[in-house]
Design goal:
Blueprint (H helix, E strand, L loop, with lengths): L1 E5 L4 H12 L6 E6 L7 E4 L2 E4 L1 E2 L10 E4 L3 H13 L3 E4 L15 H4 L10 E3 L3 H17 L1 E9 L6 H12 L7 H4 L34 H14 L5 E5 L9 E9 L5 H10 L3 E3 L5 H4 L5 E8 L6 E8 L3 H17 L1
Parallel strand pairs: 1-2, 1-6, 2-5, 6-7, 7-8, 9-10, 12-13
Antiparallel strand pairs: 3-4, 9-11, 11-14, 13-14
The structure holds NADP nicotinamide-adenine-dinucleotide phosphate.
């Protein structure tokens, strides 16, 4: 297959390049695209050097699959142009996810939706949503989901390289000393925040994304996308998205109200069998980073409700939350 990666210089693009190689994806040719500022930069592919092209160049002929991770603005503008030249576009941004003519896919949960691609574009869900979907689908199968109450603990890499750099810069002072080790009661100057609403080092920010009404866009994404992927348009979803000082790995605490009474053992058995999931005692983002599967634990019956199960999920936002899911979608076209 002739592959193109749009956003090849970014975090997700970098993980895409690594995963294509790891999984031995059948690549006949590969092209890298990014913003004009990266045009001409050289990136590796299996021992060769590939020159990055300006994504706006307009030369998209011969591409079979275009993996997009270049942000929503670039996707809105470029994805239809690339699809018009015959490529299947798999887009990581929020640009196309809620378009009724664009499938929003987690292959192990709703791979059948790929049959309804009408624009040549497939959307990869939001990274926080993706990591919860297989476990929630399993719970739905045994107990029928009625309502979710969710709190997220989202890593800074979910906000792009800018988020990673902001935490890294705030962690140490100019002498390279850890700020919190130096902290002795004086006020710490973390500098003006730009990627987040306040200092993220040694802190927790109960606004991830940007406010669109009383909620943030991240909260809207979790609700809307969960309903679309699980095919439960009336699922009640209450969600608070929180940014935490973790580099990689989004975690989600979930209270799931079910139509049917399900025991802890039944819920655990169903989730253990879910594809892409590993049940562990204490799921942490550090343990999930670099892994293809999501970790699920703290599965328990909620004592306040006969028919509710609580659980904690964590997954690598750059792998299953983005690059891996996109490549799994691409693999379904290889096998068909
Ligand atoms: N980070 C995550 O956990 C995650 C998870 C799921 C989805 N996503 C989505 O994936 C996308 C990329 O995220 P990221 O974390 O990889 O961000 P990032 O590290 O900041 O990288 C952004 C990439 O987009 C490219 N780009 C920016 N503007 C462009 C333009 N106008 N035309 C072409 N390319 C452009 C950049 O190229 P230059 O290097 O030339 O600037 C870079 O390659 C975003 O849409 C994000 O919402 C991210």
């Amino acid at each position: 297959m002739n592959i193109a990666i749009f956003g090849a210089t970014g975090q997700v693009g970098t993980v895409m390049r690594a995963i294509l190689e790891e999984r031995n994806f059948p690549v006949d040719s590969i092209r890298y695209f990014a913003s004009p500022k990266s045009a001409g930069k050289v990136l590796p592919w299996k021992g060769y050097e590939i020159s990055v092209e300006d994504a706006a160049s307009g030369n998209y002929s011969g591409i079979d699959i275009a993996l997009f991770s270049a942000g929503a603005t670039a996707s809105k503008e470029l994805a239809p142009k690339v699809a018009a030249q015959g490529a299947i576009v798999i887009d990581n941004s929020s640009a196309w996810r809620m378009d009724p003519e664009v499938p929003l896919v987690v292959p192990e949960v709703n791979g059948h939706a790929l049959a309804h691609m009408r624009k040549g574009i497939i959307a990869n869900p939001n990274c926080t949503t993706i990591v919860t979907m297989s476990a929630l689908k399993a719970l739905d199968s045994v107990g029928s989901l009625k309502k979710l109450v969710v709190s997220t603990y989202q890593a800074v890499s979910g906000a792009g390289l800018a988020g990673v750099n902001e935490l890294a810069n705030q962690l140490s002072d100019k002498e390279g000393q850890l700020i919190w080790l130096a902290y002795d009661g004086r006020s710490v100057d973390f500098g003006k925040p730009s990627a987040f609403v306040g200092p993220i080092a040694a802190n927790v920010l109960p606004i991830a994304g940007t406010l669109v009404d009383e909620e943030t866009n991240e909260e809207h994404k979790f609700r809307d996308e969960s309903r679309k992927i699980l095919e439960l348009p009336n699922l009640e979803v209450s969600v608070t998205c929180v940014r935490v000082p973790v580099f990689t790995g989004h975690s989600v605490s979930i209270y799931a109200e079910l139509e049917n009474d399900v025991s802890t053992a039944e819920a655990t058995a169903a989730i253990s069998k879910a594809p892409g999931v590993k049940v562990v005692d204490v799921p942490t983002p550090l343990d999930s980073a670099g892994r293809d599967y999501c970790l699920v634990g703290r599965i328990r019956k909620d004592p306040g409700s006969r028919s509710a199960i609580s659980l904690f999920v964590t997954g690598d936002n750059l792998r299953k939350g983005a690059a891996l899911n996109a490549i799994q979608i691409a693999e379904s076209f290889v096998s068909s």
